[in-house]
Each structure stands twice: as structure tokens, then as C-alpha cells.
Specification:
heterodimer; A: about 75% helix; globular; B: 11 helices
Chain lengths: ~300, ~270
């Protein structure tokens, strides 16, 4: 009997074996090169620091204490970096929602233009984040298009300090993650049954009421999903604050990178990473709870 | 229809579209500007594109990027498709665990992915003297973050597919492997291809993870672009950015077409 036939016979009565046969290589890759490294990092974050970035065997909470302590450490107050990361991520999510909702709404009613409008949102979603960040730099920097144009027009003599700044970081974050907000809201608006709006109108609801009482509640799943999809990468962002913000606008991602690449404190960098991961997990947890309660209401 | 879109709403949407696309258009326009320092328009030139071909660092990094992109795309597409098949086609215990494992890479920040692999490879080197060449470690990392995305794309295709055809083939005497190759794969092909395209784009664009694992001689194109953006010496960076934009746009357009054709076929 050929091995192929033997495997077919053996697995025919064991569907789980067949599923795992297909999934084993990919699962192993994810375990060995994704999950285990994360656990490694978790382990590092609890071990005492040794020379040259390494660790000693042992258990300590000092790295987390250092991160969360209210006092400065070589001029760094890590809580400020944590707070800034949260403020930027929340601010970016709010701005994306304010800008993204109208876009999603217009697309969902654009008739023949729908496809091209969706494509114009998908396009930046997939084009190089680095190139898009550079495009923002090209506009905002001291010798950038905005400053040079204003100078040429004689409106200013010295360059406006547009970049590096919190403003530039926010522009970079919002333009980077906006598509993540538009697409889920669009897909929930797309499912909205127009007859509900007609019913509301017949029953005397004004346009504003039709929006707040019918459209908005029914698009909440999209709003929640979009907010999560923006908030998570904003929390973990590195490039935007690195290129557009500079040292004063450091976010946790930059702190982590610095601990590993220049400061050489791997356990402290690991602890900082896990503070970030903890925030991500909290966001995911809230999202899942929200989604499940929405599903329960819908059922 | 009473549901006309108010004018002000269209204006807001137009402004948001401008906010997303104007910076990129400006970048592209200035890649043709005949001026080294200023951003005033000095006439049309292709010299910044010619300059790219004279810079061996860019050519070399493009080669590295293509190597990494192709290798990681082939591996992650293969592993991701198998994972999708297992998840979509079979019932087994531990499914929920598998699903969560699949979503971990989607929510983990890139910087954490890169750092944790740096730790793994670093520890392997110092504790077990297993040296992972940086090209290999970059490919491993790219596969690790791409598998989930390929799986999600392929699985959504699989779930929309008609299983009856496969069963018909088996009733007609095909064994499961033959049914898979002759019936399932041809139907699934557009899904696999769009998964692969997205994997390639993500690998080709990645800066954060690669920058943590790169070593001498394994700079990818984004690493060189990053250095140019930092130093900002000349408009060659606009030229290379334009090329990257055009190539990825074409790939995305292609993936988009595939997906459309796929769903329209599925409806028939």
C-alpha cells in the first residue's frame, strides 16, 4: 500500500489528525518564531541586568518599577512617555473617527463612484508607510514645500517650526492609520437597510435625528472595529514619532528601540515592550467584550 | 431618493481625500524637478531617476529586498494556505486556541515582533553559539508576520467556496489529493495569489522589523530609503519613493482585480 493511501485511510477516521497535518508546519513556525520569542521577552523583563545588554539568572521587578516610578531617571521620566503614547493614540483615534466617518458615509452613498472611492482608500492602506511618512516630512520640514512656498510668497521670513513637533507626529499618525477607520465603518454602513431610514422619515424624524437614532447606532460595530484598528498600531508606532517627532516626542516604541539598539538595556527594553503589549491586550479585550455584547443584542 | 448627500459632507470627504493623497502627489511631482536643494519648480528632469542606477547601495538593497520578499512570500503563502485549509475544512478540538494564535501577529506591534526575534537570535548566539545569518533572520521574521495575513485572506475565500464540486470529484473516483489539486486549487488560486501579493507588499515595505535584524550587506530598500530620508541629501529619494509607489499601486490594483473577479465568479 502506498504511503499516500495509507495516510488517507488512517486519517479518514481521524479528522483532527488531518487538520493538524495541514496546520502543523505553519503552527510550528508561529510558535517558534512568534510566540516563543514573546515569552522569551517576558522572561527577560523579569531578569536582573548583566553587562553588555545581557541578563543574569534570577527574578526581579526592578525594570517594571523603574518604568512606572514617578521619579526621573537620567532625565527620563518614563511615565511621561507612557502618557504621551496614550494621548497620541487616543487623539489619533478620535481624529481618524472625525475624519473617517464622513468619508465612509459619502462612499456608502456614492453609487457608481463607490469602487474608485474605496480603491483610493485601500491604496494608501497598502502603500509603503515609510514613503508616506517621508511625504509628510517633505511637506512639513524647515526646507519643506509648505515653508518654502510661504517664504516665496513673502508671508514668512523664518521657517515655521512645523517639524519635529507633536503636530507633525499627529499628522503622520492620522494619515497613516485613517484607512483602518474608513473601511470597517464603510462596510457596516453598506449593510444598513435603506428602508429603515424611510421608516424613520415617514415617522417624522428630521435628517439629524435619522442620523443619530438610526445610522449612527447601526454603524457602531464599524466604529468600534475601526477605533481598535487605529488605536493598536498607534500605540505601537515607531517610525512616525522617530521621523516626525524627534527626541522630545518619543513614544514607547522609540523607547523600546533605544533600549535595544543604543542603551543596551535589554531587560528594561523588554519590560517597556510588555507595558505596551499590556495596553494592546486591554484594547483587544474591550473590543471583544463590546463586539460580543453587540452580537448578543443583535440576536 | 431623499437620501442625497449634503454638500458640506462631500466637501469634508474631499478634504480628507486630499489630506491622504496630496502629500504623495507632491512627492511624485518633485521627483521630476530640476533642482537639487530648493523646492521651487526649476523644470522637468529625469536625472534623479538616472542617479538611482549609479548608486550601488540602492541597486544592492533592491536585490536584497526582492530576495527577502520572494522567499518570505513563497514560504508564508505555502504555510498560510495549508493553515487556512485545516481551519476552514476540518473540525477539531483546539480550534479556538488556533484562532487566537493566528490573531496574535495581527495585533502585536511591529517593534515588539522585531525586538522579540532579536532577543531570540541574540540568545541563541550567546548561549548556544547558534549563529543566524541576518538575511535568514529577516526572512524568518517576515514569514512569521505574513503567515496570519495569508491565512486570513485564503480562509475567507475557502469559506465562500462551493464544497459540492470537491465532493462530486470524489464521488466520481478522485481521491482527496487529486480532488484537491484538480478541483480546489484552481478555484482557490485567485485567493492564494492575492494573499501572496499582500505578503510580498508587506515584506517589501517593512522597515521597523528589518531594521532591528539587519546586518552588514543585508540592507533592504526601506533601510536605504530611511537613511536617505534622515539625511535628505538630494531628490533621488523622491525618485525611489515614486518608483515604490507606482510598483505597489500596480500590485494592489492587481490584487483588487483578482478579488473582484474571484467574488464575481463565486456568485455565478
Amino acid at each position: 500500500m502506498s504511503p499516500r493511501l495509507a495516510w488517507l485511510r488512517w486519517s479518514a477516521r481521524r479528522p483532527a489528525a488531518r487538520a493538524w497535518g495541514l496546520m502543523l508546519p505553519g503552527t510550528l513556525w508561529l510558535l517558534v518564531f512568534f510566540l516563543i520569542p514573546l515569552l522569551f521577552m517576558l522572561g527577560y523583563s523579569f531578569m536582573p541586568k548583566a553587562l553588555y545588554g545581557g541578563v543574569k539568572l534570577g527574578f526581579t521587578l526592578e525594570h517594571y518599577q523603574r518604568f512606572l516610578s514617578p521619579g526621573t531617571d537620567n532625565g527620563f521620566l518614563y511615565l511621561v512617555i507612557l502618557w504621551r503614547t496614550i494621548v497620541y493614540s487616543v487623539g489619533c483615534t478620535a481624529l481618524c473617527l472625525l475624519m473617517g466617518y464622513p468619508v465612509a458615509y459619502v462612499i456608502s452613498r456614492a453609487g457608481p463612484w463607490k469602487n474608485i472611492l474605496v480603491f483610493l482608500i485601500v491604496l494608501p492602506f497598502w502603500t509603503s508607510f515609510l514613503v508616506r511618512t517621508f511625504a509628510t516630512m517633505f511637506l512639513l520640514r524647515d526646507t519643506g514645500v509648505i515653508n518654502e512656498s510661504l517664504k516665496a510668497l513673502g508671508l514668512i521670513t523664518d521657517a515655521l517650526p512645523l517639524m519635529p513637533s507633536a503636530f507633525a507626529v499627529m499628522v503622520g499618525l492620522v494619515s497613516g492609520f485613517l484607512p483602518f477607520m474608513v473601511l470597517p465603518i464603510y462596510s457596516s454602513l453598506e449593510k444598513l437597510d435603506p428602508s429603515l431610514l424611510e421608516a424613520a422619515e415617514v415617522l417624522g424624524a428630521k435628517p439629524f435625528q435619522r442620523f443619530t437614532k438610526v445610522v449612527l447606532p447601526l454603524s457602531m460595530p464599524g466604529v468600534v472595529a475601526g477605533s481598535l484598528l487605529v488605536f493598536i498600531p498607534a500605540l505601537g508606532s515607531f517610525l512616525t514619532s522617530d521621523l516626525l517627532g524627534g527626541a522630545k516626542e518619543e513614544m514607547i516604541g522609540n523607547l523600546v528601540q533605544r533600549q535595544f539598539m543604543t542603551a543596551g538595556n535589554w531587560p528594561f527594553g523588554s519590560a517597556s515592550s510588555f507595558v505596551m503589549m499590556a495596553m494592546v491586550l486591554v484594547a483587544v479585550f474591550f473590543y471583544l467584550r463590546q463586539r460580543d455584547s453587540a452580537a448578543a443584542m443583535g440576536a | 431618493m431623499t437620501q442625497r448627500i449634503p454638500k458640506w459632507l462631500i466637501a469634508v470627504a474631499a478634504a480628507v481625500y486630499a489630506f491622504l493623497h496630496v502629500p504623495l502627489l507632491v512627492l511624485v511631482v518633485f521627483s521630476f524637478n530640476d533642482s537639487k536643494y530648493g523646492v521651487s519648480w526649476q523644470g522637468f528632469t529625469l536625472q534623479w531617476y538616472q542617479r538611482l542606477f549609479e548608486r550601488s547601495d540602492i541597486i544592492d538593497s533592491l536585490k536584497v529586498s526582492l530576495e527577502v520578499g520572494l522567499a518570505s512570500t513563497v514560504i508564508s503563502t505555502f504555510l498560510g494556505t495549508l493553515l487556512a485549509m485545516g481551519l476552514a475544512r476540518h473540525k477539531f478540538s483546539g480550534r479556538a486556541v488556533m484562532e487566537s494564535l493566528l490573531y496574535v501577529p495581527v495585533v502585536t506591534p511591529e517593534i515588539v515582533v522585531g525586538i522579540s526575534l532579536l532577543l531570540l537570535f541574540g540568545t541563541l548566539r550567546t548561549q548556544m553559539s547558534v549563529d543566524t545569518p541576518s538575511l535568514l533572520s529577516i526572512i524568518i521574521a517576515h514569514v512569521a508576520f505574513n503567515i496570519s495575513f495569508v491565512t486570513i485572506v485564503v480562509r475567507s475565500r475557502l469559506e465562500g467556496m462551493d464544497r459540492n464540486l470537491e465532493e462530486a470529484a470524489m464521488i466520481l473516483g478522485a481521491d482527496e489529493f487529486t480532488a484537491f489539486w484538480k478541483v480546489t486549487v484552481p478555484q482557490l488560486w485567485p485567493g492564494i495569489l492575492s494573499g501572496a501579493l499582500l505578503a510580498f507588499i508587506m515584506s517589501f515595505d517593512d522597515y521597523v522589523i528589518t531594521s532591528l535584524l539587519t546586518g552588514p550587506g543585508t540592507s533592504t530598500l526601506p533601510i536605504v530609503v530611511y537613511t536617505m530620508a534622515r539625511k535628505n541629501i538630494e531628490p533621488s529619494i523622491n525618485a525611489i519613493s515614486t518608483i515604490i509607489l507606482v510598483v505597489t499601486s500596480v500590485l494592489i490594483w492587481f490584487a483588487d482585480r483578482l478579488e473582484k473577479r474571484d467574488t464575481s465568479l463565486a456568485r455565478k
